[in-house]
Each structure stands twice: as C-alpha cells, then as structure tokens.
Design a protein that fits this description.
Distance between the termini: 101 Å
Number of helices: 12
Largest sheet: 10 strands, mixed
Shape: globular
Number of domains: 3
CATH superfamily of the largest domain: Alpha/Beta hydrolase fold, catalytic domain
CATH class of the largest domain: Alpha Beta
Structural class: alpha+beta
CATH architecture of the largest domain: 3-Layer(aba) Sandwich
Number of strands: 33
CATH topology of the largest domain: Rossmann fold
Radius of gyration: 28 Å
C-alpha cells in the first residue's frame, strides 16, 4: 500500500465530512424548459376581491397547473374598465394564454362600477379610488395561494396609464411594469386636450356610454343599476370643466415626478400612436432599468398593429417578466435600451399596411445626433440660413386640417389639401439622403389680430411626383404660449416668439425629395376650432422662424432579434362576428359650398356572441364647422349597445350634442335604456361651460 496516497485520502475524507451540509437546489420547471416555452396547462377561475369599504371587484384568474409540488408563480395584473366578461372576453383570452402557458398567474380585474364589478365608477379615469384599489389588489395578489409574492402590472392604453401611476405609489409587491401606448402627461398628450387644445373623438363619450351598460353576466335593470350606473355623471362634462393644465391633471402625471418610479419599466410605443412621446422622455429622465420599443404601428399591440412590420412582443415580455419576477437571467438587461423602427420615407398612403424601413437598437438620445436648421424664406423657400426679412399673412380657415386625421395617429394620405390652407415653405431637392429620429423643433415669430389662435406646424416630405407625405406635426395653443397652467389671451397685433416640439418621429428624406414646413391655424376635426375670424402673420427671413431636424449619423446599427408573430389562441365558447372598429371605421367629409361649412363623419361597429348571448355595438360621430363662423362649431355623437339575451332584449342609447359659441360650450348629453324595445328610462344633462383658452 502507498502510505502517502492513503494519508491524502484520509484527510480528504475528513475535510469533506466537516463541511456544512447544504441543501441541494434542483432547477425549477420553468428553468428546465427555458424562459419562453409553453410548458403549462391552465385553468380559468372567476371570483371577487373585496375592498376595505366592502365593494367587491370582479376578478378572473388564469392559473398554470404546477409541474412540481408546491410550485409558485408570479402574478401579472391588469386593471381595466373595459368589461372582461363581454366586450373584453375574446381579447383577454387571446393575450393571457400565451403567458399562463409560460408559468404566470394572469389576473384581470374590472374597475369598480364597470363590467361585473360592484360599486360606483368615480368621476374620472385614474381616480384616487382606482389607484388605491390597485394598490390593495396588488397586496392581495402577492399573498394568494400559488403566488411567489411578486407582482407585475401591465396593459395597453388605460392599462398602461394606470400601471405607470400605480408604480408611482410604490406598492411593495409590485416589482416591474409593462406599459404600452400610454403617456406620462395626462393633460397635453391624452385624448381630452391634445397638444393643450380641446379634442373630442369616439372615445370621449363612448366610455360614458359603456360605463352605463348593466353588470354582466345577468345585466339587471333594477334600481341599484339606475342609481349606480345609468345616472352616473358623464365624464365628458367633468373633463370639459378642466380646460387648463394644473393639479387635476398633474397630480398623477409622471412627467414632473420621474423619481417616483423605482422599479423596472418595459415601454412600447408606436410611431402612429398619439402617446408615443412619453417613451423617449422616460428613457431620458428615469434612472431605473428600461426596455423600450417604438415601432411603425398605431394604437395596437405590435404583433397585429397597422401598419407593420410586426413582431412577437409577447416573447419579449416573457423575457422581461422572467428576469424581474422569477430571477431567471434572460439577458434582457444586456439589451440596448431602445429598439426603434427607422422609416425609410414613403409616399402618402392612408391604407398603408407595411411601412418601408428597418429596426435598429440604440441608446437614447441616439449618440452623435446633430441638428439641421432650415429657415422659411421669400418665395416660399426653405433654406439653410435666413435671408431677406419679410412677413406672410394667413387668413384663418377653420375647415382645414382633415388630411391630418382624427389625432396624430392613423396613416395619412396626401397632405396637399391641408397645405392649401397653410403657409408652406419648400427646400430645394435634396442632393443626398439623411435620416431623422426624435422631436423636430419649430420656432415661429408670429402675430394675430384676434385674442386666441392656435398654430399648427407639419413637417412633410414632397415626393418627386408632387404628392406630400406627413412626417410629423403638432399644435401650440396660443393662449398657452407662456404657461399651460395660466393661459392668457393674445394681444391683437403684438409679436410673439413661439417654440414647440413636433411629435416624435423617424423618417428618411431621400435624395431628390424636398422638405416642407407647413404652418396653419386650423386642425379640424382633430382640434376644436378657435372662435374668431382672423388673419395671422408669420415673420420670415429671421433666425426666430425656423425648423430644426434631429439628424442621426450614418452608421450601421444592430437590429433587435425579434421573433415573428405567433397566432393568438381563440376561445371556443365565443365568436367575433366582425364590424368596423376604430380607426378602420367609415370616415368621410362633406362641404356645403353655399353655407361655407365642412362636415366630417365617422362611424364604426362591432358584433360578437358569447354563450348564446349576442352583442351589437354601433357608434356615429359627426363634426361640423364654418369658414365664416368658427365659433358656431358642433359635434354630434351617438352610441348604442344591444344585448340579445335568451329571455329579453336590452338596448342602451347615448347621444351627445356639443355646440360652441364665442365664450362657451353647450352640451346636451342623453342616455336612454330600452327593454324589449320599450323605453324604460331616460336621463338628460344640459350644461353651458365657459371657454377657457379654447
């Protein structure tokens, strides 16, 4: 026997025997299958979460079936007023199944006073009550059976808005959020006062209509329904009484308090979505981990948004949730902070389905960005330096603006009809191509002969055939030139220097094309017309009137590794019967040459069936203004829902009539509910509300 080897073996065994006994850790089921594999079966449950005041909120749980005993899962929570058990029934399933199969408890709760939940809906969206309820729910979900104690909050539009605002309250169990198509500025960037000016669209009174639909699934028309829902005060009137920025809007707006969020944020935006500006602002101003993507689509999820190209954002979301809710290193924190779609420039096309361009990954702001200045000049030129000073007059024609669309969103056609009512300044044909990404800036030296005027600026691309594509645009409310909180009238004849950002954009101006700056005072029907006939003046040939373009350096940047969209799962107990939903609904305009009026009509519809109950919804919007009397503009809206139950037929009809005068808005808001086509109850609100810088 080798004595030296025996002694070494003895001491090795002795050393190992003295080590502490450590528990053996086996990889979890999710780790074994990888972060993106659909490894789980699931079940769907409904129930209640009772708030401290006794109100019960209706809750639906999508629960994965554990693969090992006592397996725990993170909870991903969505909080909406959009009726999870009827109008949201089909869409929720299509999204949630992707995540529950990958090991997440998915939870959707109807906000109080909506859908299947009890209680009375507060007077406004994102109310203190709503946010308090969300904080309470997150605590409950973190302690529910099967939860690993970690909660994520997410959603698109409303769900993205309240995810941001709840994160500002810092509930301990909330570890990360995903906010798609949502903004950090509730006054300037939301749908009520777009760019600080009064905006009314299909959502503005549709939600007031929808919150008056009876509670699902029984749809009772009892006295509790009439008291809590049917007679609820219209939010449209609430918002019309908040025409100035201030505490009402800023209390829960992230833009002035970025430090309130201390958890990671996944942000998704679209170049044709009205809320896109918040994504680069949050990237610039927040110190938390951020994953951001801005694609070419409208107010939709990236797997089916129009126009494409699309990608499977749910795969990216699983990487995100795995990292922050499961401690699985998916390398998501190693990704560049921003994936951005660079539009290559294209001809105007209001039916655009696929956007020419390519994806890049980058930090934000893009390193090496420079600013190219262009100056309006005589003979309507747009030059690299200011030349001979001069001025251009523009008569206010309130019926222009239709080509720009219903908000800074949907694909647009040829902009020449809008340009006909604008001052336009065109560059010479470009010698070489260049790309921009960011917020183009516009500076205008102006005057007006009326106490209120808006200035609209559009950056456009003139194609070689003369057609004109919209690149970016924005409006400045002249009353808010110094302050959104304290607007003040213009002094007729006084000269003002204005400066404002256009909405976030990417674009490539191709060689041989020309750049156009278009300036006007009207944006109908997107923005309610100002009331006074007037002429404004633009002073050119001066450094105070210019546009500045954020030019990105010419260099190769890596593309994100996005997966192709996967088909969404569909329910077997429900059927989508089709319709025309926003923004693809019917949209046309009309002009009365004798009266000098222009009208715009939009209508949409949807139909679906759940468990033998059929639902039919319609909406009609009609706008009208006058070249000669812009004070007398109007909006007529009609919204209806018919619920065909086996034993009865419920029909809810809401109409709104908004008319303006020089100093006020007059609103007539009417709800009617019918049972078996017989009028059961009618409720009318009629109010006159003073105009305040609108």
């Amino acid at each position: 026997m080798n004595f030296q080897k025996t002694r070494s073996l003895f001491w090795a065994v002795f050393f190992l025997a003295t080590l502490p006994v450590l528990p053996v850790r086996f990889p979890s089921a999710q780790e074994r299958f990888g972060p993106s594999q659909p490894a789980y079966d699931f079940g769907i449950e409904t129930g209640w979460i009772t708030m401290p005041d006794g109100v019960r909120l209706s809750t639906t749980y999508y629960k994965p079936v554990p693969l090992v005993p006592d397996e725990k899962f993170p909870v991903v929570f969505e909080f909406l007023p959009y009726r999870k058990d009827d109008s949201g029934y089909i869409g929720t399933y299509a999204l949630y199944t992707y995540f529950v199969r990958r090991g997440y408890i998915m939870v959707r709760v109807d906000i109080r006073g909506t859908g299947s939940s009890e209680g009375i809906f507060p007077l406004r969206e994102y109310s203190e009550q709503e946010l308090d309820d969300a904080v309470e729910i997150i605590d409950r979900l973190s302690k529910m059976p099967g939860s690993n104690g970690r909660v994520g909050m997410w959603g698109i539009s409303w769900g993205g808005f309240n995810a941001i605002q709840v994160a500002m309250r810092r509930p301990p169990a909330l570890k990360a959020i995903l906010a798609a198509m949502a903004t950090d500025d509730l006054y300037h960037d939301d749908v009520h006062y777009m760019d600080g000016a009064f905006h009314v669209d299909e959502w503005a009174f549709w939600f007031d209509h929808a919150k008056a639909i009876p509670r699902s699934p029984d749809y009772p028309l009892d006295e509790a329904y009439f008291k809590e829902r049917f007679e609820s005060y219209p939010g449209l009137l609430t918002y019309l009484k908040q025409q100035k920025d201030g505490e009402f809007w800023r209390r829960n707006s992230l833009r002035w308090q970025y430090d309130k969020i201390q958890i990671p944020c996944y942000l998704i935006g679209g170049l044709l979505d009205g809320y896109r500006d918040s994504v680069p602002r949050m990237l610039e101003n927040m110190k938390v981990p951020i994953k951001a993507e801005i694609g070419p689509y409208n107010h939709s999820w990236p797997d089916d948004g129009i126009p494409g190209p699309n990608y499977e954002w749910r795969h990216e979301a699983v990487r995100w949730w795995d990292n922050w809710l499961k401690d699985i290193d998916t390398e998501v924190t190693a990704d560049p902070r921003l994936a951005l779609f660079m539009r290559e420039g294209h001809a105007p096309d209001s039916n655009l389905q696929t956007t020419p361009g390519h994806w890049i990954t980058t930090d934000w702001p893009i390193p090496g960005t420079t600013w190219q200045k262009l100056f309006p000049a005589e003979n309507h030129g747009l030059l690299e330096s200011p030349e001979k000073p001069g001025e251009e007059g523009l008569r206010y024609v309130p019926t222009y603006g239709i080509s720009s669309g219903l908000w800074w969103g949907e694909p647009t056609g040829d902009m020449r009809p809008d340009d006909a009512g604008s001052l336009v300044f065109d560059s010479p044909p470009l010698n070489k191509s260049f790309a921009i990404a960011g917020f183009p800036q516009v500076f205008l030296r102006v005057s007006a002969d009326a106490p209120l005027a808006h200035w609209v600026a559009r950056l456009e691309d003139i194609q070689p055939d003369g057609t004109v594509s919209l690149v970016a645009g924005a409006l400045l409310n002249g009353a808010q030139r110094n302050s959104r909180i304290d607007p003040e009238p213009l002094v007729p004849g006084e000269t003002y220097d204005l400066g404002f950002d256009l909405h976030f954009t990417t674009w490539t101006f191709q060689a041989g094309h020309r750049i156009r700056l278009s300036v006007s005072n009207s944006l109908f029907p997107m923005i309610w017309p100002t009331p006074y006939p007037m002429t404004t003046r633009l002073f050119i040939g001066t450094g105070e009137t210019r546009v500045e373009l954020p030019v990105v350096p010419e260099e190769k940047r890596p593309a994100p590794r996005f997966e192709r969209p996967q088909p969404r799962e569909t329910r077997t107990d429900a059927l989508d019967l089709g319709g025309e939903v926003w923004p693809q609904g019917f949209y046309q305009w009309r002009r009365d040459l004798w009266k000098g009026t222009v009208g715009v009509e939009w209508h949409g519809s949807s139909r679906y069936e759940i468990g033998g109950v059929r639902f039919e919804s319609t909406e009609k919007n009609d706008y009208e203004t006058s070249d000669n009397s812009p004070a007398a503009s109007r909006f007529l809206g009609e919204d209806s829902d018919r619920i065909r139950l086996p034993d009865r037929n419920i029909y809810l009809l809401t109409t709104v009539n908004i008319r303006s005068e020089e100093k006020s808005f007059e609103v007539i808001f009417v709800r009617q509910v019918y049972l078996n086509d017989k009028l059961l109850r009618r409720k009318e609100w009629q109010e006159t509300i003073p105009r305040q810088g609108q």
